[in-house]
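Reopening: structure tokens for the C2E complex, inputs below.
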Amino acid sequence: MRDTEILVTHHKALMELSHNASFIELPRPRKLAALVELCTRLLGLKRASVWLFPPERDRIRCEWLHDEEQPDRNSCISQKDSEFNLFRSDHPEYFRAISEERVVAVNDARNDIRTRSFDRDYLSVQNIHSMLDAPIFDGEHLSGVVCLESDVRRDWSVPDISLAAAIADTISLMNTHEAWLRSKRALEYVRHYDSLTGLANMESLRDRLGHLVRKITRRNTGSLVLLWIDVDRLKTINDGLGPQAGDDVIAEIGQRLKEMQLAGKDLLARIGGDEFALVIRNYTLPDFLDEAIQDIQHRIRQPIRVSGQNLNVSTSIGVCHFPGDCQEPEELLRGAEAAMYHAKRQGRDRSTLFDSEIQMTARSRFALENELREVLKVDGLDVFYQPIMDRTGTQLESMEALVRWQHPERGWLSPIEFLDIARGAGLMYELGACVLKRVCAHWRDAKDRNILLPTMSVNLSSEQVLMPELPELVQQICHHQSMPVSALQFEVTEDSIQGDFSIISRILEQLVEAGAELAIDDFGTGYSSLSRLKSLPFSRIKIDRSFINNLPDDENDCAITLSIIGLARGLGLSVVAEGVENDAHEAWLFDKGCDYLQGYRYSKPLPYPEFLSCYFSD
Ligand code: C2E
Ligand code: MG
Ligand code: MG
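Re-run output (same inputs, fresh job):
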């Protein structure tokens, strides 16, 4: 046969092999075996191998060896097998050749400068005389080499060289295809998994719920339950200790949930910043679910060590059943979420089963949000006032404004019933402005009746203290009522001052320069740093009522309250105790030198007219 005929025959054989559907399906080692076997058969050789560069690139490593003399050695080669590692430093000329030449065709391998470094240890031992090596290029990148060896001296022909190069090209195509599959898989992973926890994401959860709900409906048997698990107060951790701490907490919780063994556990997903979902199938024992939920809560309550601190984290869990509570996957999700919100409103760290009442609530939350938007357009929210008394509890010192909403159907709503909705809807700044206008209008109204109200204390939200326009707004509203800014005091919670320090401190400084006083609210509940406290212009601390509740019986609360009073002294701040409800609280606080008292012991928050008649009628 003439060279061209041989060439055509070889290429036809290679095409038939590599374009065959069953070849494409083969795993990589079997593909390599088939290619190498074809090559040795067509060229009448006994030994051929495929080598590749590991990431180190200081060597090539044999990936597949075909040896007719020792057929039992035909295999993937173990990476550790030193015989099958060729180092660049031992064979510099060979490495230079494979990286520069299209095909390295060596007729006299033992004497050729490119290959003679193999002579003593290899060529003579294996009785090899000629070598034909075709580098494998993935694009510009040299990734390996196909190595053909002959035990008789052979002057490589054009068809030999051409086939070796074609085999190398086929392997390069395989590499490209595999790389493409890998990146597709990586992309799939990103689409379906959460990178922080490695758990399924919301999209996967939706897919899975859709699949399970269809299956249960079709077979008319089986059930599932969806737990919506929300980490309480993660925002506080993020704000106080930084986003990395928040991520660490989430990753740890994900891990703990992952490790949980549970009959019927189907899919665990991370479906939001601080939210997980757990699907459980066909739970049969009635108490099983209760136990499972308790187990989850117990695991998560174990302290989580982050940034050198032990954090105590709790969760609120919403539970929704299929087919009991809903008909579709989307309803299942919304039901579990609504139940979770219910659990949160009940005070967090608990679980709630979805029921018709919650269904109502979920709908009404949506309605309430729209109504709130409308009310804010006309500055229609009101404020109640609660007195803050001197340390003896007899003299009015100042008054705290607490927002209320007189709803046409539901009556007076307190902040807990709508602040979250306002926050979720991005309405906190507007709400704050509305409260301020009300407070200043009341001050002016009292003045017009010749009553000079004491300092009026107004709560600021975290959204407000991040708004550079806030100081200007305060000045404008006061000016409008001819009220000095110094008649106002602002309360900011510990958590609200965790954002961008330079912005917050500028805003707070400006409020103080304008004459207002600043108090830190609900002190002791957040993760505030003392250095922040010291460098912001606060003049008073309000101790959170959770510490006052159990005074004087609870030793821990006594110790904490005492240390807050001491801290305030050290920083030159005055101290207010919130939630003073009885004589015992009052007596203890008086004894410990607390400056001011606020709580039901003196009065609940009152509507403005009642407050006036209570404290300013003759
Ligand atoms: P806060 O600023 O710490 O207000 C004190 C809360 O404790 C008030 O609840 C008050 O009614 C309640 N309280 C006072 N004394 C006692 C007591 O002796 N025992 C008990 N159990 N509770 C007592 P309220 O009015 O429901 O306000 C709740 C929270 O809503 C406030 O906590 C404040 O953080 C927020 N808030 C209220 N009004 C506004 C506002 O205009 N703007 C902003 N951003 N937040 C507000
Ligand atoms: Mg307050
Ligand atoms: Mg407070």
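The chain has a mean pLDDT of 90. The domain at 369-616 is CATH 3.20.20.450 (TIM Barrel). Marking as resolved unless the reporter disagrees.
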